[in-house]
């Protein structure tokens, strides 16, 4: 299930939007490779990317929230931690069973649901706060 970037997902903070678009692109590349029958290597590569992405993106978002005094930073961190745990569980499944169709389907559904929900609610709240506070980004 390909996830298309839509302007409605923009949070209004350019570096965060750029990182989100990068994640969507990587995820869609995995799905395309899988559909073409050459996705086993791509599945492993996606998880390597996710490891680096989560560290960098979550650190950047949390630093921004701390810098601007975002009031819901604790809840946001909990969401990041939950997502990280989910990725760890998927990686363990990959290690045990290999890049199966079931794994790709589960990752696809979970990531799509989480990303759309998280970006649309929690990340957009950061953008609104930045705008309301007049913080230049």
Polypeptide structure, described:
This protein is an all-alpha fold and 137 residues long. It has helices at residues 14-35, 40-68, 73-97, 101-133. α3 packs antiparallel against α4.
β-strand amount: under 5%
Radius of gyration: 16 Å
CATH topology: Four Helix Bundle (Hemerythrin (Met), subunit A)
Gap from first CA to last CA: 33 Å
Look at the structure and give the mean pLDDT: 88
Largest sheet: none
By secondary-structure content and strand pairing, the structural class works out as mainly alpha
Net shape: elongated
Low-confidence stretches: none
Identify the CATH architecture.
Up-down Bundle
Topology:
Elements: H1 14-35, H2 40-68, H3 73-97, H4 101-133
Question: In a nutshell, what does this entry contain?
Answer:
This protein has helices at 14-35, 40-68, 73-97, 101-133.
Key features?
137 residues, mainly alpha, Four Helix Bundle (Hemerythrin (Met), subunit A), 4 helices, elongated
